[in-house]
Design a protein that fits this description.
globular, 240 residues, 16% strand, Rossmann fold, 7 helices, alpha/beta
């Protein structure tokens, strides 16, 4: 396992368009949304592409009821941080496979939106310590790294649009081997508001609908110390 970097570097911000690619509604909101609020305020174009609708995320409700609700909650969550474009790929929640079909769909999305930066959530096996990451997070994170390369190759998935080779890096929030961070001082409250939009999901977490603000604020404060600011969000960068 790589060593934890105690001092984080500022994430590059000399870009114009980013695409958030994650498995589920709420994945962007557990940290990254605070940075998205900052970036949209700076005039950057940030869009979201979700692989599933999170329909299998509530054990006490059937997926056909949960999916539409979680989609609407995600759209409200996006609005809270200035994101106006959000798409869903409809892969099955909990059963995402990191194969050719997913790579094709992600490559098509990358070509369609032409981002310079990809935003996502931790794709590694765990979160640090004795933990195990969700299989959809692992599958999507690793497939999107391949899909960036696929999108740049005109001979792969030619039916998915013209090749796009403009992605500079992918940034994975909540990675146990983070290297960079975004200063979100002044934006943490909007990130919290964005997460609170996921009312159904939060109400069905173990512990009920406790205010998620304490968790996000505590993480932002500890990460801020590693960046030298009040609040920050950490990322692992993969440069292409």
């Amino acid at each position: 396992m790589s060593q934890v970097v105690e001092r984080l570097e500022p994430i590059p911000e000399d870009w114009s368009r980013a695409l958030g690619i994650v498995a589920h509604p709420d994945d962007m909101e557990y940290g990254t949304a605070s940075a998205v609020a900052r970036w949209t305020d700076l005039g950057k174009d940030v869009r979201y592409l979700l692989v599933t609708r999170g329909e299998a995320g509530i054990a006490t409700m059937p997926p056909d009821e949960v999916g539409p609700i979680r989609e609407q909650e995600q759209r409200r969550s996006c609005a809270a941080v200035g994101v106006t474009v959000v798409e869903f790929l409809d892969h099955p929640d909990g059963l995402v496979e990191p194969g050719i079909a997913l790579r094709r769909d992600l490559a098509e999305g990358i070509r369609r939106h032409q981002p310079e930066v990809i935003l996502s959530i931790n794709h590694r096996d765990g979160w640090g310590g004795p933990s195990w990451n969700h299989p959809d997070h692992r599958a999507v994170g690793r497939a999107l790294l391949d899909a960036v390369r696929d999108a740049a190759n005109p001979w792969l998935f030619p039916e998915s649009g013209p090749a796009w080779s403009g992605v500079r890096f992918a940034a994975f929030n909540a990675s146990p081997v983070a290297t960079h961070a975004a200063d979100v001082t002044g934006y943490i409250d909007r990130g919290i508001a964005s997460l609170r939009c996921h009312e159904l999901y939060l109400a069905n977490l173990d512990g009920g609908s406790d205010d998620p603000g304490a968790f996000l604020r505590s993480n932002a404060e500890s990460t801020g110390e590693r960046l030298g600011v009040r609040h920050a969000v950490a990322f692992e960068l993969v440069v292409f």
